[in-house]
Amino acid sequence: MRFLWCGNDGTIRAKASAIGGLGGRIESGIGLTVAMQAMNGLDQLQPVEGMGPVGEIRLVPDPETFRVLPYAPRTGAMLVDLVQLSGEPAPQCPRAFLKRMAARLEERAGTLQVAFENEFSLATRENGEFVPVDSSLCFSTIGLTASQAYVDSLVDALERQGIELEQYYAELGHGQQELSTKHATALRAADEQVLVRESIRGVAAGFGLVASLAPKPWPENAGNGGHIHFSLWKDGENVFHNGDADDGLSATALSFVAGVLAHLPGLCGLTAPSFNSYHRIVPQYWAGAFTCWGHDNREAPVRVPSLFRGAEEASTNVELKAADSSCNPYLAVGGLVAAGLDGIERGLEPPEPVEVDPATIAEDERVARGIHRLPATQEEALDALAADDVLNAALGPTLATSYLAVRRSEWAAYSAGDEAFEQQGHFSKY
After folding, report:
1. What mean pLDDT do residues 219-223 have?
2. Are 226 and 115 in contact (CB under 8 A)?
3. Do 162 and 145 contact (CB within 8 A), yes or no?
4. Which of 30, 83, 98, 247 is deepest in the core (most CB within 10 A)?
5. Sorting pLDDT into bands at 50, 70 and 90, what band is 139?
6. How high is the pLDDT of residue 138?
7. Range name among 225-234, 262-271, 280-289, 354-363 with the lowest pLDDT average
8. Is residue 319 scored above 90 in pLDDT?
């Protein structure tokens, strides 16, 4: 039985228990060094106070997350909380952070429903190089057919884990695929995002392929996003929906969007947190490189999708495009909640929506309208996160300090390396 967690570096890690004695381990957990949340994506331990060689926490699983893993014979998995020896949640636990944020939001406004869109790349490994499995065009049926057997197995694996698929298609990049799953409550969505990422890679390994969710798998190819769709529900109704508004958005939705925009530079440090992320978030690559929002504007990092006729309330949601799967999903969604909740509590209103590519707006007009370039590097995003009092207060000092130490160390390591080092370090780890 794998006890799964996601580190501050966005890497999914696990310890496994034999079935014998599993009952006791479900109750009391598996021991883990306190140092793990100070470990970066290169397995380099960072000097964070209280996260050195002395001390332990426990990996305590949530039995409600139990799944049998179709791609790993005779193996199951559960998602875990990081717990102190006293039984209290460890302050560096990302899952506990999301639980806190979801509870605050529910008390104030409702339950966040979340869905992830995952883009990923399929490759073979030839002479030490990652080679895309196809060179087809965007949405091409050639790309669909090239990976049909893999996709059939992936869909089967997800369905057998109770994860419902909404859409799948071959995307723009060579060897690039995209799948989206159904909305779920914030915690369940983050748990399932871990399972989806594991399934994408695990099923690929069974076919002798390498699947990567790295934000920019090849310098010359399209980037992989991990877009986050979200809406707010209370008493069975979509709080984001207002049938009388032209775009279907309520005042609460607009305040939530305004909060996200107000904190977006720092939020990027949680949602697009890797060195590789900022080769994807560039103007005119449909990743959303400027602080703005818009209706069906795929160059806006915060996009309001058009509604589906006959399902207007159900389809009212907002998409965060400045996100990818190098993130820890608990931190990304928890940060999103903290930003949106701040907008609701302060009654913020968003600026006018941007209904054109913001890169085509003259710079002086962009400045006048408050349309600023999002961080252009991992370092800039982490500096923005460190300067964001709301996000830091939500994370708490232990989680914020350890997270920033881990991600800053990655910036230093990859800045000192070459392009091949960066690709290897991201392609094979996300």
Report:
1. 90
2. no
3. no
4. 98
5. confident
6. 87
7. 280-289
8. yes
The amino acid occupying position 336 is L
Distance CA 336, CA 48 (A): 25
Under DSSP, the state recorded for 177 is: E
Token readout for 158 is: 């997800």
Confidence at residue 305, expressed as pLDDT on a 0 to 100 scale: 95
Residues 276, 249: Cα–Cα separation, whole Å: 34
Contact 199, 205 (CB under 8 A): no
Q: Is the dihedral of CA 164, 167, 171, 175 positive or negative?
A: positive
Percent of the chain as helix, strand, coil, to the nearest 5: 40, 20, 40
- Can you tell me the mean pLDDT for 97-115? 97
Backbone torsions φ then ψ of 204, nearest 5 degrees: -60, -40
pLDDT at 377: 97
| Whether 10 contacts 328, CB under 8 Å | yes
In the structure encoding, which two tokens stand for residue 123, read together?
A: 């490759």
Name every residue whose Cβ is closer than 8 Å to that of residue 367 and which is 6 or more positions away in sequence.
none
Check residue 293 and report its DSSP letter. Answer: E
Share of the chain above pLDDT 90, in %: 92
Residue labelled with tokens 């409550």: 185
Q: In whole angstroms, what is the distance from residue 429 CA to residue 51 CA?
A: 23
**Which residues 6+ apart lie within 8 Å of 380 measured at CB?**
265
Q: Tens digits of per-residue pLDDT, 176-207?
A: 999 999 999 999 999 999 999 999 999 999 99
394 burial via Cβ count (<10 Å: 0-12, 13-18, 19+): buried
Looking at residue 349, its amino acid is: E
Residue 186: exposed, middle, or buried by beta-carbon count in 10 A (0-12, 13-18, 19+)?
buried
> Alpha helices, DSSP H only, in 207-350?
251-271, 312-315, 329-345
CB atoms within 10 A of CB 44: 14
For the entire predicted model, the pTM comes to 0.96
Q: What is the mean pLDDT of residues 155-184?
A: 93
> What is the rounded average pLDDT for all residues in the chain?
95
Whether 414 and 427 have beta carbons less than 8 Å apart is answered as no
Distance in angstroms (rounded) separating the CA atoms of residues 179 and 157? 13
Q: Specify whether the CB–CB gap between 174 and 119 falls below 8 A.
A: no
Q: How many angstroms separate the CA atoms of 301 and 324, rounded? A: 12
DSSP letters spanning 322-365 = S--TTS-HHHHHHHHHHHHHHHHHTT----PPP-S-GGGS-HHH
